[in-house]
Request: fold
Amino acid sequence: MKKIILSIIILFLVTCISYAQDLKLNTYTFGEGIVVSGKDNSSIKLSGYVQPSFESKLFTDPDHPDAYTRFRMRRLRLRLAGDALSNKLEYSLQLDLSGTSETGDESSSVLLDAWVAYNFSRELQVTFGQKSTATDNRELMMGSQSLQLVERSRVTSAFSTIREFGLFVDGTFNTGGGTYLKPYLTITNGDGLNAILKDHGGLKFGGRIDFLPFGLFRNFGQFRQVDVVRELTPKLVFGVNYSYNVGVSSRNGKESGSILYLDSKSNELLPNFAKYGFDFLFKYRGFSVLGEFVGTAAYVPDGITQRVRNDGSTSNIFLDQNGTQHVANYIKERMIIGDGYNIQAGYFFKNRISVDARYTHIDADSHSFLNNGTFYNRPNYYSLGVSKYLTKGYGMKIQGSVTYATPKSGSNDLSGSPITGNEWIFNVLTSIAF
Reply:
């Protein structure tokens, strides 16, 4: 880990030294990164942020065993980005050294972003590599350092793939009268983060289209949750998205090869997975509202006769939750099938205090991994948070939040103990960027 950090810093410094006569250091702003520009209008930027956090979970049932409390490094991001050829070419490399995924799970992947983009015009950009995908819900298009609450919503952690490897086409078109249309098209491997060993199934095809009726947001506000710039005029973006993954080898296309099936000839045969949604973001004078809906569906092909166990052996037993041999139901019960919506709002005061609230609802299909008693099976989440921003932007902030969750019958905690009451989750996070 230390070698990776040193390598990036050394690369940045060597680049600066090598071209010292042609480069100049732009004015540094705390939290916005170090930018070095060249005489040919090229530039390179080194930025990052650190987010130590505290989390505690309690239960309303007084007889339930003590819940867990943990301190951890929630995120530790380092990003190297740049442009060349008079801003025609852009590139980015982003690492996370905390060992935690964007949705809070443990992750063995250090590499987050690695892409190269070419701007054919001011309206059209084509990117190849690994990056976040516009076919996720809108919250995943927003930087982690700009979140209203300590954590992203449960809709995001349940349904999102976060990052994918492939081809991305993004557009921004002025449609007249101050309105803008932003289409996105994606073709990816459908296996989430970079699949080093093998790609499973076919490709994933998707797209999104956003409409901005009141013009563009200021200072990238469309991709940041809190209205820290306090938009002087109302700003609104709403959009729809859809994706279809041909042959998914995990619960929702996030982890390549974690769940595999075979036909009678032991050839790989996988279900297809569709995701769709619509969302919006509104900002005006410190007030912001984010609303999202996501739905998913699985299509199980005829011909699956075997499943691959974790140890590599196979079985032809497909017992669903009712104890009945049913291939399609069994497969769906291992996938994220259902829908959910998230609505959150907040107000950023002039003294840089933000007060925010969120309600999230998850509705699982009758056969879905969303009914899993340990990780899901909690249809309602109510959150309230307070944040203090110590600088004008996102350079440093302290956040606290409390979430109330309502587990359904059959739920249990991480140790396997049944939950008969509801859950309280407390979070505190400090974010420092450079």
